[in-house]
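Hi everyone, sorry if this is the wrong subforum. Our group has a chain we'd like a structural model of before ordering constructs, and none of us has done structure prediction before. Sequence below.
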Amino acid sequence: MSDSRFGWMNEEDDRAESNQLKGKTENPDAPIMKKVIRTPKRTTRGIFVDDNIWDDFEDIIYKQKKQKGKSKPELAEEALLYIIEKYKK
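Answer:
Right subforum, don't worry. Here is the predicted structure as tokens:
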């Protein structure tokens, strides 16, 4: 036995489903939410590098951050892709 207080929810669900099937909205002037595009999931991996190399890498990251450029993970991935392309045969 369903509670009559929640009948309006079923009506709203039915109306929403029919609108979706017809491809229309109740308020076409309302702003449409955009799907958020997220960066892919990344896992932290430990590597050992010379301090000078790491300092140079950090300098590049800082410059990119000031320019609103690539992030640290993006730069690391770019470097790894370069290495993979160079040595993969």
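For your construct planning: DSSP finds three helices and no strands in the chain. The longest helix spans residues 7-22.
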